[in-house]
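Quick start: read one record
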Amino acid sequence: RLRVPLALAALPAMAAGEDGPPAPQDAWGDFWLFRFLVNAAGYASIVVPGFLLIQYFKRKNYLETGRGICFPVIKSCVFGSEAKSAHQEDGSLPARAEPAESSTARQVFKLLFCAAGLQASYLTWGVLQERVMTRTYGATDTDPGEKFKDSQFLVFMNRILAFTVAGLYCALTKQPRHGAPMYKYSFASLSNILSSWCQYEALKYISFPTQVLAKASKVIPVMMMGKLVSRKSYEYWEYLTAALISVGVSMFLLSSAPNRHVSTVTTFSGVVLLAGYIVFDSFTSNWQDALFTYKMSPVQMMFGVNVFSCLFTVGSLLEQGALLESVRFMARHSEFTAHAVLLSVCSACGQLFIFYTISQFGAAVFTIIMTLRQAFAILLSCLIYGHTVTVVGGLGVALVFVALFLRVYARSRMKKRSKKLPPGESPVQKV
């Protein structure tokens, strides 16, 4: 009779790759799948009642029959206030306005400012992310210290600051009249929360360089899904670069030395969490792309998504009692407090730099900057946290980034060529 409970209790330890049995009170609490299900249950306690309310107002035809002080709020949340607009050419952001007269020196300064802002924000964010999730706080000669375990609280910290920044920006600047039903932001918000949670949790099982390479290679499953599900066709260079990325990632993962540090060993849990990150992140970008058919600015999108992100995460944290526990951890470790706040500041500032860079220089320049950022992030992580990379692994990393730069170059060429096509022709679908 005791065999099944004992086997279940040992499962989290085996998934985490631990040698000894965990303490009974922490066995399931430290198992990532259990935490994922608990978080999902917390989100469902908010999503399900909201879904039922939306269906009720739609069946009741509230848009025609509703009156009273709550009517504008319900109309904005459930029905929206404006019809869809024509879809933007790039599918996500309004076309950038080219300045009539702008000196070369000023454009170079803007480009350097954008590049420096993106690099500083996301390199600092990556270093802090690895520090918070993989190192202990309060360690002394006699006390090994304790690790912070609740990834959802870090997601909440990031989203509450991003919500505040986006709200202030929208309040202080002129924005388009908002027309999208507010509830539609919740889908992108939920997938965004889950992708961020998977990203934080994955660092407990794999190294940061492995995580960065996995993000760079997510174009491969996107192309596979497009081919199988949507019957999309791709250019030859897209297949070539996808194959190069696959070979480069394989070289890096298979070049692990026998004495490699335990933090850099890819585990099954880490692979599953990375797959979850890629799936949820892909859904987020596609859903946001559909939402941009409404007239809105990128900062309005940032605000709408983060409103629901704050609602979901704080509701789930309160239901679990994890919010107070995380606050107590912050009170015990002032260093963690500084890291968590700086992590959130870098995340919010990075999003603003993304919007500004794309509006000023376009998506191609932005992609080049962020690709360089990924390469620098791997180098910085290896220098600070001592990750070892073999010669073959280094060649694999280089191959991945060469393929990414080839994609940027080929896509820019295809975009220029598509502008010269006759009105009746369209270029091949690209990812």
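Residues 1-26, 85-101, 257-265, 423-431 have pLDDT under 50 and may be disordered.
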